[in-house]
Amino acid sequence: MSLTTAFSTASSSLLNTAAQLSASSRNIDGASNTSYSRKISVTVTNADGSTRINVVRASDLALFNRMKDATSTSAKQTALLAGLTTLQTTVGDVDNETSVAGKLGAFNTALASYTNSPDDPILAQAAVTAAQDLATSLNTASNVVQGARKDADAAIATSVSDVNDLLKQFETANNAVVSATVKGDDLSDVLDARDAILSKLSEEMGISTVTRGNNDMVIYTDSGVTMFDKSPRKVSFEASTVYDGTVTGNAVFVDGVAVTGASATMPLKSGSIAGNAELRDTVAVTYQNQLDEIARTLISDFAEKDQVSTGADKSGLFTNGTDSTIPSTLTKGLAAQISINSAAVVSEGGSALTLRDGGMNGSNYTYNTAGTASYTARLTGVSSALSGTATFDSSTQLGTGISLATFASGSVSWLEGLRSSTSTAADTQKTFLSQASTSLSNATGVNTDQEYAKQLELEHSYQASSKLISIIGSMYDSLFAMIK
Amino acid sequence: MQSSYISTLSWTSASLNAIPRIQTEITKATTEVSTGRLADVGLTLGVRTSHSVDLRTEKNSLQGLVDGNSLIDAMTTRTQSALSAMTTTSNAFLENLLSGQATAGTAPQLETEARAALSSFSSALNSTDGTRYVFGGVNSSVEPMKDYETTASAAVDAAFAAKFGITTTPPQSDPKVAEITATQMQDFLDNEFADLFSDPAWGTNWSNASDEAITKQISPTERATVSVSANDQAMRKLTMAFTMVGYLGVQNLNSNALQAVMDTARTAVTEGVTGMTAAAASIGVTQTRVKAATTQMQGTLDVVNSRISTLEGVDTAEAKTRLDALTNQLSMSYSTTSTLMSLSILNYA
Predict the structure, then answer these.
(1) Is B5 on the interface with A (CB under 8 A)?
(2) Do residues A119 and A373 touch, judged by C-beta distance below 8 A?
(3) In chain B, which residues have their Cβ closer than 8 Å to the Cβ of A106?
C-alpha cells in the first residue's frame, strides 16, 4: 500500500466521519420532535473499493399505520365523548334532580299531594310551579341538545377546512418526495414531512394509504373514497348556523361522495369528523326525540275533553306553546316549545285551580261543574294517565308501552350508559394510541445518549484519521527532506 | 447490535404521561372522600343510573305522602275533637231531658238549653283545620251548616203553621198551640217535621255539605276516608232533637203534647249520640291506619335511602386508602421524572 492510498483512505474516512456526525447532529436536533425519524448512516462500498455514507431513515410502516388508525379511532371517541358530556349537563348529578326525569318525579309528587288535598290552593300553586319547572327543564335540555349539535356542526366545518389545507400541503410534500426519489436525493426529511401531514390528517378522518412507484402516495378515506391521487380531491361541507329539532345537518362530501349522514354510501368510520357527525346526526337526534316524546306525552295526558258536546280534545296544563292542538305522533322540536297553559298561570291572568276543575279551554271543558272544593275526578284522571302506559316512537330506542316516568328515567340511563361506554372506549383508545406512539417512537425515534456516544466514537475516529494524515504528512516531509 | 432501543422521547415521557392520569384519579378520590358518593354517578353507573333516578322519585313520592299524612292527621284530629265536643253537648242535653220532669215550669229553661245546644252543635260542625271545613264532604270550601235563624227557621215555622192551621207570626206563640194534642204533635213530628231533615229539604234548609266524603291516599296503595259529612244521619237526628225542643214553642204546649216532644227528642238524641260514636270510631280507624301507613312508609324510606347509598355511595375508608396510594404514586412519578431528566450521558462525559 502506497502512502498516497493511505492518505486518500484517511481523508475519505474524514469525510465519512463528517457525514456521520452531520446525521447524528440532525438526530440530536430532532430528538424531541414526535414526527422525526432517526437518520441512520449506512456505509456503502463503491465499485472502486472506496466507501461513502448513505443516510436512510428508521421507519416501520406497520407501526406507523397502527398509530394512524389509533389516532383516528381515538379522535372519534374523544369527539363523541365531548358531545356526550355536554348532553350530560341535562342530567347533572342525580342528587340535584336537574334531569327531566327528576323534574317529572317532583311534578308527580306535587300533583299527588294536590290530588290528596284539592281544596288547598297552595298545593295547586305548588303543582303548577312544578309543572313549570318540568316544562323549563325540557326547554333547557332541548336547547343544550341543539347547542351540542351546532357545536358538532361547527367542529365538522373546522375539520373540513383543516383537511383541505392538509391535502394542499400534502400535495407539495408528495411532489417533493417523488422528485427526490427520481433524483436520488436524501429522502429522509421529505418523507418525515409527508408522514407528519398524514398524522394530522388521521386526527380529522380515518385514512388509508397506498404507495406507488417513485414513492408517490394515494390517500383514501377509511371507507374507500379517494382523497388524494396526484392532486387533492375537494372535501366540501356546508355548515348550518341554526339548529332546532327539525333541522338535519348537511353531509360532508369527499370528491362528491357523501361520507357522513344517513344517505352516505361510504360513511367514515373514524376521525373527529365521524365522531362529530355521529353525535350530530344520531346520538343528539335520538336524545332530542326522547325529550320530544316526553313533551308530547305530557301534553296529551293533560288534554281536556269536551264535557258538553263532541268538540276536539284541547291541550290542558301543558301546551305546544302556539295553539291548543294535541300532537298524536312524534313532533320534532316539541320539547323546545312545550309551555304551561296561561289559563293555569296566575301572573298571566289564569288560575291554578283550573288544574283541578278543568276549563282551561272554556266552560265546555269544565269538569268540576258544581265547583266543589275537594273535587278529585279530574286530578285522579290525569294522575292515572301519567302513571299509565303510553306509546312512544321507536326512534327513541327506549321501547314503548311503558309509563312516562319509566321512559324518562330510561332516557337518563340511555345517555349515561352511552357516555359510560364511550368514556371507557375513549380511555382504551387513548391507551392504545399511547402504546402505539411509544412503540413507533422506540422504533423510529432518537436516543440522545446513544447519539452522544456515537459522536464520541466518531470524534475518536476523526482524531485517528487526522492523526494518520499528519503522520503521513510528516512521512512525506522526511521523505522530501532526504531527497533535498 | 443493541437488543432493544428506546428513544429519548419515550424514555422521558413515560413517567410524565402518567402524571395527568394520576391527578385526575386524585380529584375523583378527593371528591369521593369528602362526599361519600361516587364522583361521577352517571359515568360509573351507566345504564343503571335510572335505578338511582327511580329511587329518588320513589323517595320523593313517599316523602310527599308522609307529609300529606301529617296534614290528614291534623284534619282527623280536628274532626275527632269536634265530634267529642258535639257528643258532650248532646249528652248534657240528654241528661237534662232525662232528669227534668217536663212541665210548663221547666219548659222555658229546656228551650233555652236546646237553642244553645243547636248553636254550639252547628258551630262544631263548621269546624275547620285552617284550610277546609272538616264536615263539608268534598264541598269543603263552604260552611257546612247554615245559620238557623236566616234559613231553616222559616221552613220550620211554615211547616208548623200549616200543620196546625195557624196564621199568626210567629206561629209558636199562637193561643191555638195549647190545644194541640199529643197525637197531633206526634204525627207532626213523625211526618212533616221529620221531612225537614230528610233530603231534599235538609240540603235546602240546613246543610251545604256534600254527601261524598273526602278520601285521601295515605300510602302508595291505600286510600282512606278521612271525613264525616255534616249530612250524616247522626247529625240530622241531633239537629232535629235540638230544633224540636228549641223552636216548637214547648212552653206554650199542653203537658201531653210537651211529653210527646220530649219523648221524641230523647229517642232522637240517643240515636244521634250512637251514630256519632260510630262516626268517631270510623275516624279513629282512619287515624290508626294513617299512623300505621306513615310508620310503614318511613320504614320504606329508610330502605330506599340505604339502597341509594348502596348504589351511589363509596366506602370512604377505601377511597381514602386509594387517595393515599395515588398521592404516593404521584410523588414517585415526580421523583422518577426528575431523576430521569437529570440522567444524561453528558454528566459523565
Answers:
(1) yes
(2) yes
(3) 60
Band (pLDDT 50/70/90 cuts) for residue B1 is very low
From chain B residues 46-85, the ones with a CB under 8 A of any chain A CB are: 46-50, 52-54, 56-57, 60-61, 63-65, 67-68, 71-72
Closest partner residue to A423 among B43, B63, B345, by Cβ?
A: B43
Phi, psi of B36 (to 5 degrees): 75, 5
Report CB contact under 8 Å: A97, B137: no
Is the peptide bond between B20 and the residue preceding it cis, with omega within 30 degrees of 0?
no
Which of A201, A209, A212 is CA-nearest to residue A226? Answer: A209
Spatial contact of A291 and A138, defined as CB atoms under 8 Å apart? yes
Residue A262: exposed, middle, or buried by beta-carbon count in 10 A (0-12, 13-18, 19+)?
exposed
Closest CA to B59 of B235, B245, B298, B275: B298
B28 in contact with A, Cβ within 8 Å: no
DSSP letter, residue A250: P
- The amino acid occupying position B286 is T
pLDDT at B139 over 90: no
CA A253, CA A472: separation in Å to the nearest integer? 71
Contacts of B339 (CB under 8 A, 6+ apart): none
In A212-346, DSSP assigns E strands to: 217-221, 226-229, 231-232, 235-236, 253-254, 257-258, 318-319, 339-340
Whether the Cβ atoms of residue A27 and residue B8 lie closer than 8 Å to each other? no
CA of A254 vs chain B CAs: smallest distance (Å)? 36
Give the residue from A103, A135, A108, A110 showing the smallest Cα distance to A124: A110
Give me the residues paired with residue A43 across strands.
A53
Q: Which DSSP helix (H) or strand (E) runs through B223?
A: strand B223-225
Pairing outcome for strands A207-211 and A318-319:
unpaired
Model confidence over A118-171: pLDDT tens digits? 888 889 999 999 999 999 999 999 999 999 999 999 999 999 999 999 999 999
The phi, psi pair for A319, rounded to 5°, reads -130, 165
Cell readout for A233 is 380531491
- Mutate one of A294, A413, A460 to test the B interface: name it (highest B CB count within 10 A): A413
**Which residue blocks in A302-447 are alpha helix, DSSP H?**
334-337, 354-357, 377-387, 404-444
This complex has an ipTM of 0.82
Q: At what angle are helices A121-183 and A284-301 packed, to 10 degrees? A: 160
CB atoms B138 and A442 under 8 Å: no
**Which amino acid is it at A63?**
L
Tell me how far apart the alpha carbons of residues A36 and A28 are, in angstroms, rounded to a whole number: 11
Compute the mean pLDDT over every residue in chain A, rounded to the nearest whole number: 91
Q: A447 vs B11: CB contact, 8 Å cut-off?
A: yes
Q: How far apart are the first and last CA of chain B?
A: 22
Nearest neighbour of B41 by CB, restricted to A94, A417, A438? A94
Determine, for residues B349 and A113 on separate chains, whether the beta-carbon distance falls below 8 Å: no
Reference A271, options A239, A230, A223, A229; nearest CA is A223
What angle (nearest 5°) sits at the alpha carbon of residue A464, between those of residues A462 and A469?
95
pLDDT on residue A159: 95
| pLDDT value at residue B102 | 61
Run of H or E residues at A40: strand A39-45
What pTM value is reported for the model?
A: 0.86
Q: Are A430 and A67 in contact (CB under 8 A)?
A: no
CB atoms < 10 A from the CB of A234, how many?
A: 11
Nearest by CB to residue A94, choosing from B52, B344, B345, is B52
Residues in Cβ contact with B47 at an 8 Å cutoff, skipping those fewer than 6 apart:
A413, A414, A416, A417, A420
Kindly state the helix (H) or strand (E) to which residue A57 belongs, with its residue range: strand A51-57
Helix (H, G, I), strand (E, B), or coil: what is residue A19? helix
